[in-house]
Every structure is written in C-alpha cells, then in structure tokens.
C-alpha cells in the first residue's frame, strides 16, 4: 500500500537481438522505456567496465539513434484497404511469442491484395456505371412521352433546346412571365421531382435564356451524345445495360465474398503482426545503437529486477545493469491492496503522487467509504449499488469495483441505521436512527471531519519529511506548527463548549501565539537551522505582509473546513427525509398499487440522483478539505511499454 520503489535498468546487447529483446520487454509489462541516447549523453548510462565489456565501451563512440524501418508501411496500408473492402472490424490480439517472418507475410498479403484488387476495382466501376445509368433512366422517364428523336433536335441549325424540371412554385413564376420570354416551352411529363419541360429558343439569345432558366431554378436533364432515338428508345437501351450490370455486379460480389471467406482471418492476423512490427519500430526509437550493439534504458520496480534478468538472461553476450542511485525523479507506480485499488482512479483524477510522496489511496479509500456510507446508509439501496458494481465490473473493472465497494459501505451503515429501501421501521437500528437523533448526527459529522483533518495534517508532515522540506514540515501552515495551532484551537473551543477546561486558557493561547509567530517567521527560521544566508529573500516587506495574510487565511480555512463536514450529517438526514416525502405521496394516492409504484420510483430517484450527489459531495470533501492539506499530486504515472 505504497509507491513502488523504482530502479533504472540499462541493457546492452547484440543489435541483431534488439527486436526480440523489445518483444520480451513488451510482454513483461514491467518496463517504462526512456531515451537511451539522452542517458548516454548525460553520462547516466553506466555499467561495469570489465575486459569482456570493452567492445561495448568502444562502440559508444559511434552511438546514434535507431532509424525507423518504414518498409512495411506501404503493405500495412494495403492490409487496411483489404479490411475496408471486406468490412473487417475485428482485431485479434497477435501472439508476440510467435516468431514471424515479416518479409514472408508481407509477400503473402501482397498476393492477396493483388487477387482482390482487380475484381474490387471492376465492382466499383460497375456500381458507378449502374448509378449513372439509373440517373439517366430517371431523367429519360420524365420525358418518355416526347416522340421526337433527340438527335433531330441536336441537329437544328438556328435553335437550341433544353430539357429539364421545374418545381410547382417555379412553374407558376414561369407562367406569369411567359409572354416576356422569347422561347417555345412545351410540357412533356410529370414526375415526383416536378414538371418536365422542353424549352426551344433561337441560338442568338442563348446567354439570356441561360440567365432566365437559372433564375427559375431549372434542373436540366443532361443527355449524353451517344444516346439516340426517342426517350422511350433510350430507356429500352438503358434497361438492357442496367440488367447486364446488375448481373455482373452480383457475380463480382459473390467472387469477393468467396475471397473474404478464404482470406479474412489471415488478413487480420497478418495486419496485426505488421502493426506490431510498426509499433516496435516506434518504440525502438527510444533505444540507441552503435555498429554492433543496442543500448536500452528504462524504469522498473525494484521487486521486478529478478524477473527482468530472468527474461533476458538467455540472450548471448547481453549485459544488464540496475542503477539505484537515481539522478532524476522516477515515475510513480502504485501498489495497493485489492480493496483499495479501485480508489486509485479518484486519486489520479486529482493528480498522480510524486515518487517521494505518500500514496493517499488507502486513507482516501477508508475515509471515502466512511463518508459515503454515513451519508447514504441503506441496506437495500446499498445492495443495488453493489449489484450494479458487479455488473459494471465486466466492462469497467475500476469503476465497477468502486461502485461495489461504496454499495457495501452503504449496506453496513444501513444496518447501523436500520434502513432498508428507505423504510426505518422494518429493522432495529444497531447504532442510531438519524431522523430521531438530528443533533447527534450533525455533531458526529463534525467530529468525523476533525478526525480526518488531523489525519491529513499527519500525512502532510510525513510527506514534508519525505521531501526533506523543513520549512513546510516544521513551520508551515500544513506542517507541525499548523497542526499544533489547529489542535490547540480544538482543545480550547471544546473545553468551552463542554465547560470542562482540558488545557488552561493561558497555556493554550501561548502555544497558539508561538505557532503563529513560527508560521510568520518560517523562512528565516528554516534558513537559520539550515545555516543558509541571507535569512530572507529579496522582498522582506512583501514576505511578511503575505505571511500575516496567510495566517488569516489559515484560520478561516481551519474553521470552514471543520464546519464543512456538517454536510455529512445533513445528507444522512436528507436521505431519510427524501424517502419520507415519497412515502407521503404514496399514501396520498390512496391505492396499494399506486403506493408501491411511487415507492419504487422514489427508490430509483434516491439511488440515481441522491447517490450521485453524495458521491460528488464525498469527493469534494476529499479534494478540498483533505487533499489540499497534505497532497500535491505532481508525479508522473509509470507507463510500461506496450503495443496497444
């Protein structure tokens, strides 16, 4: 239940083994690669200089990065094109342990591509031709009653003609202005697209007629030069061509379907292997190389050192070294008990823990389940959340696990409250009935908040020690001084409220004053202890003004943060009150069936709406009242190399 201790692994091996070593590292899922070239240039790539390693040291003088092999990219495109032709969407996971001859499978895919390409291109052209013919057929069907051969109109010396369609509105517009148009306009047919007209006009007014017809939104029916005879003759020719094309398309589709059945699985497998090869080439850019050797650097958890050595030990002349004396901050790899693991997602939403920072997941897990359960305590509704979590776990293990654990917490508090699907009279309360003990619930919520805030201070001090931050750890508002300040305030206020002084007022105020002074003078005090000079920065006045205002802000933050937890009790009461409202509505209906329906709807609303609100409120208390006191979350997540 902590941040994994990391080490840097450096590997040197024969360049011929680079691909296989990368495959084994990818399969292990234990290594996050970093740029080996950068490590070498920064003199961070170290290993024992012994006689058998001299060649590897000498070759460092000829170091360079791997040049990406792009020879397979063209064939990958062809593979993707084949998947598109056959509408293949599924992807099989390639077996990285399988040794694949890339040139051989590339040739195989090229052969399949050539076999599929010709019929597919012919099918495309046939479909395009069919589409054009159908378009012409539709056009000619609009003028099928026109008996004059089209070529006779085309051969007119002094006249032009246009055939096209007008909408109802444009036809009326034409009718109104007909006497102003120097043309013969004949109605030749009606279709679902509108009214079809033949327009004949002198060639000398061609431009003017084009302008007039454009203004009427005249949709012209184009007639290709090769079509002759009357529209009815043309339709017969088109019908014959159409039938031939349909027959040919069916044959081509059947042929391609046979090819798909034969090659589908093989295409997917080859394309996946080639994609893996491409991703390995991308990953390989993080490696460095000389004439004979490759150089690899990466982060690995200390507990996985032996696994990595075991994976790579069979390679000839390979050199594996681990460097624990780290010059750069490692990435963060979380290690948590199975119960807490789903809550890592909530931590990551705020920020990844730094390598030298406590993992807040265990504290967040326990406190969040406590807060959620106390606000949403119900055996029946908690069981629904648990059931929903188990179902969701099949698709989203993290969110499903989170929902399931919150459901269990809700069930536990439901037992303590004696609540089942909103009913509080079916079971006796093991601990308390919230609606019958309002003051106790609200006060208890504040005490829960105080306990969590004190724990947050302890976490903050431990984090400061891990970061070696004396200034914030000892004298900061979230450090020891702030902790004592808050604790003394609680003791003094608690003593007054209980009328039983725990600490004398004089001593308490004295400690508080000292804590305030320590927080104001934290920088000079730290510099004095650490023997640093000068004691202050450049802007001394600005520093003290900021420090004084920071004390005011700290005091307000302590008060508001403590009182903020009263919402935990308020939501516990709201949870009961909301169901009482639905129960009252059900009784007002007056029928058993109506009452049952209202109660079912009420439970659905409470589980959905109030459950979400309580989830958000719990998260708000974690992020704003607790995390802000001890957690920075400025780390980088450990990202082991993979091919996904």
UniProtKB/TrEMBL annotation:
Membrane-traversing stretches: 366-390, 402-421, 441-462, 474-495, 501-521, 565-585, 597-619
InterPro entries, alphabetized: V-ATPase_116kDa_su
Subcellular location: Membrane
GO MF annotation terms: ATPase binding; proton-transporting ATPase activity, rotational mechanism
GO biological process: vacuolar acidification
Main location: membrane
Membrane topology: Multi-pass membrane protein
Gene Ontology CC: proton-transporting V-type ATPase, V0 domain; vacuolar proton-transporting V-type ATPase complex
Chain segments annotated as coiled-coil in the UniProt record: 235-269
Keyword annotations: Coiled coil, Ion transport, Membrane, Transmembrane, Transmembrane helix, Transport
Family, as annotated: Belongs to the V-ATPase 116 kDa subunit family.
Protein name from the UniProt record: Uncharacterized protein
Organism: Tissierella pigra
């Amino acid at each position: 239940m902590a941040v994994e201790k990391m080490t840097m692994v450096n590997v040197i091996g024969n360049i011929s083994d680079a691909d296989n070593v990368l495959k084994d590292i990818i399969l292990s899922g234990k290594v996050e690669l970093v740029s080996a070239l950068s490590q070498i240039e920064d003199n961070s790539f170290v290993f024992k200089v012994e006689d058998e390693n001299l060649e590897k040291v000498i070759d460092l003088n000829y170091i360079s990065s791997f040049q990406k092999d792009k020879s397979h990219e063209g064939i990958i495109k062809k593979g993707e094109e084949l998947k598109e032709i056959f509408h293949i969407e599924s992807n099989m996971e390639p077996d990285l342990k399988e040794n694949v001859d890339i040139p051989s499978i590339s040739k195989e895919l090229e052969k399949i591509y050539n076999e599929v390409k010709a019929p597919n291109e012919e099918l495309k052209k046939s479909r395009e031709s069919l589409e054009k013919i159908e378009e012409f057929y539709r056009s000619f069907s609009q003028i099928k009653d026109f008996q004059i051969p089209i070529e006779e109109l085309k051969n007119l010396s002094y006249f032009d003609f246009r055939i096209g369609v007008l909408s109802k509105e444009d036809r009326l517009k034409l009718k109104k202005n007909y006497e102003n148009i120097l043309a013969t306009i004949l109605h030749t047919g009606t279709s679902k697209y509108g009214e079809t007209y033949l327009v004949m006009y002198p060639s000398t007014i061609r431009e003017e007629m084009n302008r007039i017809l454009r203004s009427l939104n005249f949709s012209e029916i184009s007639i290709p030069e090769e079509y002759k005879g009357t529209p009815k003759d043309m339709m017969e020719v088109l019908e014959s061509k159409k039938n031939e094309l349909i027959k040919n398309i069916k044959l081509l589709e059947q042929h391609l379907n046979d090819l798909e059945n034969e090659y589908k699985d093989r295409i997917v497998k080859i394309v996946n292997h080639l994609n893996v090869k491409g991703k390995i080439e991308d990953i390989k850019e993080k490696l460095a190389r000389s004439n004979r050797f490759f150089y690899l650097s990466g982060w690995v958890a200390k507990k996985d050192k032996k696994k990595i050595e075991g994976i790579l030990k069979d390679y000839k002349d390979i050199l594996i070294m681990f460097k624990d004396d780290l010059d750069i901050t490692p990435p963060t790899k979380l290690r948590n008990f199975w119960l807490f693991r789903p809550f890592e997602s909530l931590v990551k939403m705020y920020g990844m823990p730094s390598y030298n920072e406590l993992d807040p997941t265990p504290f967040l897990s326990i406190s969040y389940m406590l807060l959620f359960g106390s606000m949403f305590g119900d055996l029946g509704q908690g069981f629904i959340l648990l059931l929903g979590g188990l179902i969701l776990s099949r698709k989203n293990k993290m969110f499903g696990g989170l929902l399931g654990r919150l459901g269990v917490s809700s069930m536990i508090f439901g037992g303590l409250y004696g609540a089942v699907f909103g009913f509080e009279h079916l079971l006796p309360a093991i601990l308390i009935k919230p609606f019958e003990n309002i003051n106790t619930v609200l006060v208890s919520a504040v005490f829960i908040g105080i306990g969590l805030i004190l724990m947050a201070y302890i976490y903050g001090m431990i984090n400061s020690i891990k970061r070696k931050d004396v200034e914030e750890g000892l004298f900061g508002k979230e450090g020891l001084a702030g902790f004592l300040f808050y604790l003394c305030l609680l003791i003094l206020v608690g003593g007054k409220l209980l009328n039983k002084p725990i600490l004398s007022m004089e001593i308490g105020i004295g400690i508080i004053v000292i804590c305030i002074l320590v927080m104001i003078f934290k920088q000079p005090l730290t510099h004095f202890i650490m023997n640093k000079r000068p004691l202050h920065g450049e802007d001394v006045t600005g520093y003290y003004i900021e420090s004084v205002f920071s004390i005011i802000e700290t005091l307000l933050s302590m008060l508001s943060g403590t009182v903020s937890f009263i919402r935990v009790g308020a939501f516990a009461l709201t949870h009961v009150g909301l169901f009482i409202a639905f129960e009252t509505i059900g009784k007002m209906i007056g029928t058993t069936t109506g009452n049952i329906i209202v109660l079912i709807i009420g439970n659905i609303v409470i589980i959905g709406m109030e459950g979400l609100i309580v989830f958000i409120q719990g998260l708000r208390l974690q992020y704003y009242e607790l995390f802000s006191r001890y957690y920075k979350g400025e780390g980088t997540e450990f990202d082991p190399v993979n091919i996904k």
